[in-house]
Amino acid sequence: MTPKLASHFTAYHSPVGPIFITADADAILVVMMNVPRERFTSDIQKQLGELPEETDSANHKMLNKAVKALDAFFHDGAALPMDFPVKPQGTDFQKRVWQALQEIPSGKFVTYGLIARKIGSPNASRAVGAACGANPVPLFIPCHRVVGADGSLIGFGGGGVEVKTKLLELEAVK
Fold first, then answer.
1. For residues 83 and 23, is the Cβ–Cβ distance under 8 A?
2. Which pLDDT does position 173 carry in this prediction?
3. 132 catalytic, yes or no?
């Protein structure tokens, strides 16, 4: 008998492109946006050391919760929960950045420099940008809410500035 994999994934079709969500029973592990299925399966297998089982979100408590949150966000204008259960893998610095990102309320944005100061590394705004780019759980860790020092929209690993702009518009960021 083959052991059951600890993680599962589902594909979510959003207004900003495909979103692949990987979760275990307790939390979201990885979210990949705007990548072809082949790249997702290759990348996720490298990251997790296994290819998670594809599952209908209705049959998996955490994936179902994530899909409902995305439906409410994309279709009903609801904010994504700031305390959504996630288990991002990264360095201690990245985890500090990601924790600070989770504290940015929907409808607001901050600069990379502000995040650097918040985590006690005032000269690390470029490293904060790199941590945002390495965020394995975009949307649930809202790296799209971080902008350049002059307020410009720069970078977004989940589909580029065009997708970042759309996400901020959905949140009615001014």
1. no
2. 63
3. no
Cα–Cα distance measured from residue 23 to residue 27, given in angstroms and rounded to the nearest whole number: 6
Give the list of residues 6+ apart from residue 2 with CB closer than 8 angstroms, or none. none
Q: Note the residue count of the chain.
A: 174
Q: What is the longest distance spanned by two Cα atoms in the chain? A: 58
Which of 116, 143, 167, 170 does the annotation list as catalytic?
143
Q: 91-106 burial by CB neighbour count: b if 16+ within 10 A, else e? A: eeebebbbebbbebeb
* Continuous segment of H or E residues that includes residue 14: strand 8-14
pLDDT digits (tens, 9 = 90+) for 45-77: 998 888 899 999 999 999 999 999 999 999 998
Q: What are phi and psi of 151, to 5 degrees?
A: 85, 0
DSSP letter assigned to residue 32: E
